Amino acid sequence: MCFHRDARPPLPPVAGAAAEQGDLLLTAADGNRLAAYFARAADPTGAGIVIMPDVRGLHAFYKELAQRFAEAGVDAVAIDYFGRTAGTGPRGHDFDYPNHVRQTTVEGVTAAGLPHDLHVYEGAPHSFFDRTFQQHADASADAWRRMLDFIARHTPARV
To answer: Does a structural domain hold residue 124?
Structure first.
């Protein structure tokens, strides 16, 4: 998902807390290293989510989004999938993302074939999922609810 440079994820009703969170490096099976950020739920539901940032990599927006999921009981990790071509460092405003987009391959980012849901918010701008964008607050809140409902429907019951 994309967002305005100063955007912040919506603040959903907080049911819990993030037990721990932080930056880490992941190592792929082929030895490639990818920057990542994790947030673990203090009261996990058993669900987890991988957040795929836009071309800016692990921007604070995605780290905070991972924290919001953890607060909702969903363990989260955001990964910077451009690590194969751009390394593990932060992305500046002058990051040459088109060059890295052209290098993205199916082999480098594999489709999982998992259940999914697609919803279009007519009239909402490209990056409406942002608590600072008040004129689309209802769409943003609905998107958050839909995500949590989807996760709940596809998370096996804990025993």
So the answer is: yes
